[in-house]
C-alpha cells in the first residue's frame, strides 16, 4: 500500500514540484493550499506524513501542528520554512514537528528526509508494546497508557528516543548516538535538541519530573533509562539535584 503524504503549501509552483517528486518515488500525494484546509484534510486522511509550510494563509503551520497534536494525531511532520534560524527550528520541534527544513533546499535532501521519516514510522508501527512502572507504551498506536489512567499521544521523535533508551535500558546512550539513530543525517542546531524531548518524556512518566527516577541525565555524555530503579531520586540527593536540565 502506498504511503499517503499531505503537502501543505500556499505557493502552487512549489507544491507541484514537491508533489511530482514524491509521486515519482511511488507515494500518493494530496495538496492543501492553506492551514484551515490542511486541518480538515489531515483529520480526514490521517496521512503517513505531513509536509507543512510554516507561513500559510488563514492558519499558520505551527498552529496547525499544535492543534492536531492536541487532538492526538501522531502523523510525522516535516516543516518547511524560509525561517531557518535555530530558534525557529526549536519552535517547530516544540509544537510537535519531527523535522524542519529551511527554504531554499535541495530536492535530494528533502526526499532523504521524507524517506527517513516514513522508514522510522514503519519501524515504530512494527514494534511491540513496552511496559514499565505501571505505564504501557504502544509503539504501533504511538500511545502512552499512563499508570494514573491517562492516555497520551507521543510524537515520532519522542517515540523513537523512548524506544532507543528502552532497548538499551540500564546503559548510557550518548547524545551523538541518539542524534544518529533518531535524526540520521539530518542537521539540527545542536545535540541539546534532544533535551526538549526528554523533558516531555519526564513530564509524562516520572512521578516528579524535577527529580527523575527513570530518565537520568549523564552529564557530558547523554541519558540512561532505568525501568525499575532500585534507588529513587529522593533517596539520592546528589542524583536528584543533577537531573534537571
Our count of domains comes out at 2
CATH architecture annotation of the largest domain: 3-Layer(aba) Sandwich
Strand arrangement across the biggest beta sheet = 2-1-3-4-5
- The H-level CATH homologous superfamily of the largest domain, spelled out, is Response regulator
The percent range for helix content is: 40-55%
Sheet/helix structural class: alpha/beta
Topology, number of strands: 12
N-to-C CA distance: 42 Å
Describe the protein:
β7 (135-138) and β8 (143-145) form a beta hairpin. The longest helix has 20 residues, at 107-126. The protein has two domains: 4-124, 3-Layer(aba) Sandwich (Rossmann fold), CATH 3.40.50; 128-242, Arc Repressor Mutant, subunit A (Orthogonal Bundle). Helix content is 42%, strand content 20%. Residues 230-245 have low confidence and may be disordered. It has 245 residues and is of the alpha/beta class.
Tell me the layout of helices and strands:
Blueprint: E1 4-8, H1 12-24, E2 28-32, H2 35-45, E3 49-53, H3 61-70, E4 77-81, H4 86-94, E5 99-102, H5 107-126, E6 130-132, E7 135-138, E8 143-145, E9 151-153, H6 156-167, E10 172-174, H7 175-183, H8 193-205, E11 215-218, E12 222-225, H9 237-242
Parallel strand pairs: 1-2, 1-3, 3-4, 4-5
Antiparallel strand pairs: 6-7, 7-8, 8-9, 10-12, 11-12
Helix pairs in contact: 2-3, 5-6, 6-7, 6-8
Short description:
This protein has 245 residues and is α/β, with parallel strands linked by helices. 42% of the residues lie in helices and 20% in strands. The protein has helices at 12-24, 35-45, 61-70, 86-94, 107-126, 156-167, 175-183, 193-205, 237-242, and strands at residues 4-8, 28-32, 49-53, 77-81, 99-102, 130-132, 135-138, 143-145, 151-153, 172-174, 215-218, 222-225.
Amino acid at each position: 500500500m502506498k504511503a499517503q503524504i499531505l503537502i501543505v503549501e500556499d505557493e502552487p509552483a512549489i507544491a507541484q514540484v514537491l508533489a511530482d517528486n514524491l509521486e515519482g518515488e511511488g507515494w500518493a500525494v494530496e495538496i492543501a493550499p492553506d492551514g484551515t484546509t490542511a486541518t480538515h484534510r489531515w483529520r480526514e486522511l490521517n496521512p503517513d506524513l505531513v509536509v507543512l509550510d510554516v507561513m500559510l494563509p488563514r492558519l499558520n503551520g505551527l498552529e496547525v501542528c499544535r492543534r492536531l497534536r492536541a487532538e492526538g494525531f501522531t502523523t510525522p511532520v516535516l516543516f518547511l520554512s524560509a525561517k531557518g534560524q535555530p530558534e525557529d527550528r526549536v519552535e517547530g520541534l516544540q509544537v510537535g514537528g519531527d523535522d524542519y527544513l529551511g527554504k531554499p533546499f535541495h530536492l535530494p535532501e528533502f526526499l532523504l528526509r521524507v524517506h527517513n521519516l516514513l522508514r522510522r514510522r514503519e519501524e515504530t508501527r512494527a514494534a511491540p508494546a513496552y511496559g514499565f512502572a505501571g505505564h504501557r507504551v504502544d509503539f504501533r498506536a504511538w500511545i502512552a497508557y499512563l499508570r494514573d489512567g491517562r492516555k497520551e499521544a507521543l510524537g515520532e521523535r519522542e517515540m523513537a528516543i523512548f524506544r532507543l533508551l528502552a532497548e538499551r535500558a540500564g546503559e548510557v546512550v550518548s547524545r551523538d548516538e541518539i542524534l544518529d539513530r533518531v535524526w540520521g543525517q539530518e542537521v539540527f542546531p545542536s545535540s541539546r535538541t534532544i533535551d526538549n524531548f526528554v523533558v516531555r518524556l519526564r513530564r509524562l512518566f516520572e512521578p516528579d519530573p524535577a527529580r527523575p527516577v527513570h530518565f537520568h541525565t549523564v552529564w557530558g555524555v547523554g541519558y540512561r533509562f532505568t525501568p525499575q530503579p532500585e534507588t529513587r531520586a529522593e533517596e539520592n540527593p546528589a542524583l536528584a539535584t543533577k537531573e534537571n536540565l
